[in-house]
Amino acid sequence: QVQLVESGGGLVQAGGSLRLSCETSGRTFSSLSMGWFRRAPGKEREFVAAISKDGGFTYAASSVNGRFTISRDNAKNTVYLQMSNLTPEDTAVYYCAATNITTSIVLVTIYGDDYGYWGQGTQVTVSS
Fold first, then answer.
1. Residue 123 main-chain phi, psi, to 5 deg
2. Are 95 and 119 in contact (CB under 8 A)?
3. Cα–Cα distance between 44 and 113 in angstroms, integer?
4. Is 67 exposed, middle or buried (0-12, 13-18, 19+ CB in 10 A)?
């Protein structure tokens, strides 16, 4: 079993920055590919970014590419989401997720159903 705990959410003005953290336990962190998703009020869950097991490959949704950066520290069992130039459209509950189904060829996945472990979420609110 894998436990994930997000932190770092909060209220920020448009144009500001936040860094989300997700600490994991219960399984060797370096065996997991990690992802960030979000769910805005009244909307479906949306893929945000993903990172490979060793951190060497990342992929971000077009809506956040260039503004959000995913990274990981395998020594600290933690994945991060650095968010910059935030807009009110980024307001959502942000979830980190972990998966062990990726391979040496398929390094990350953008599909929520591929992730077997989820955190409880952290609220990010961007005011205009």
1. -80, 135
2. yes
3. 13
4. middle
pLDDT at 117 over 90: yes
Q: 78: Cβ–Cβ under 8 A, 6 or more apart, which residues?
A: 21, 22, 23, 24, 29, 72
3-state class of 111 per DSSP? coil
Average pLDDT over every residue of 111-117: 95
Distance in angstroms (rounded) separating the CA atoms of residues 50 and 89: 20
Rounded to the nearest 10°, the torsion over CA 52, 56, 59, 60 is 110
CA distance 44 to 33: 22
How many of the other CB atoms lie within 10 Å of CB of 88? 12
Question: pLDDT tens digit string along 72-110?
Answer: 999 999 999 999 999 999 999 999 999 998 887 789 999
Q: Token digits for 45?
A: 């869950």
